Amino acid sequence: xxxxxRKVLPFVAGxxxxxxxxxxxxxxxxxxxxxxxxxxxxxxxxCLNIYEGEDLKDEKWxxxxxEIEGFTFEEGYMKKIEVKKADSKGEDGSSIYTxxxxxxxxxxxxxxxxxxxxxxxxxxxxxxxxxxxxTLKFDLKSMTISGNGGCNLYSAQIEELGTNSIKISKNAxxxxxxxxxxxxxxxxxxxxxxxxxxxxxxxxxxxxxxGKESLTFxxxxxxxxxPALGGMWKNTRLLxxxxxxxxxxxxxxxDLDKMIVAGKDGCNNYNASIKTxxxxxxxxxxxxxxxxMCPNMETADKFTNAMAVVVAYKVDGNQLIMMxxxxxxxxxxxx
Length: 335
What we know:
This protein is mainly β and 335 residues long. It contains 3 helices and 25 strands. It has helices spanning 3-22, 184-191, 298-308; strands spanning 27-31, 36-40, 43-52, 62-64, 77-89, 95-107, 115-122, 125-126, 135-139, 144-148, 153-161, 166-168, 172-173, 196-200, 203-207, 213-219, 231-238, 241-242, 251-255, 260-264, 269-277, 282-289, 312-316, 319-323, 329-334.
């Protein structure tokens, strides 16, 4: 071998090693499958949700108003990407990234939280479905939760949200005194202890810091009946007129498993099948009743006739409203 070549070879090899050692290592960033409202210099906008790190073991997500050059956001999917970080910072103080390559892509489990939920159990125990069931709604765009505690409306900020961890701020609610039986105090007490969550088969489970199951919820499916509909309701308005509460006040009890209703029309006991039922649609079958005659049959007749024209409903906390085909209220109830 040429002597000059032998002398140059070690020098070239050393130079290559030196250059590889001096090349700065790129960073790894996770970009979440959700965007949340945030403040930027230009005003309100939607920020990317990012976490700097190789894995999600100790994930700490933060908002970033700047876009990542070369990166394509896909709602619902979190992406692990290799990025090159600029020496300078953005106007909001965040890092400026350029994507080098995509390393991994998976479904973002946090997106499964979006929507309306109805309470199913507390500390592993089923709850009384005859009372107003607490509800929970997630809005990940605003990073808030809201709902009805069984009596009062409430809302709270989501302070931290990981792929299985959650931290909720102390919630604020209305201060209405409720005469109906409810579990509001117990519900809020347990809700304040949650630190972990899991969504599986349309069921949301919260756990406390010790890993113990604390609350479970069922998701409200628009094609299915609102679970809060179940149980007994007392009639409060009939064709727009207030109903005076007494022993003969009309009522209705829903059995969603058997798809039937039963109750008292103000005089006679009645029952009927449920022909159509979704999260908003409601149509009763033929109504059968006892044939007792009462001194005042006017309320009973109006109630039965009103039930016959019901085609839709909505549940708002402890209020149930039934409507006709024109969207007019025909019956109102309270739990």
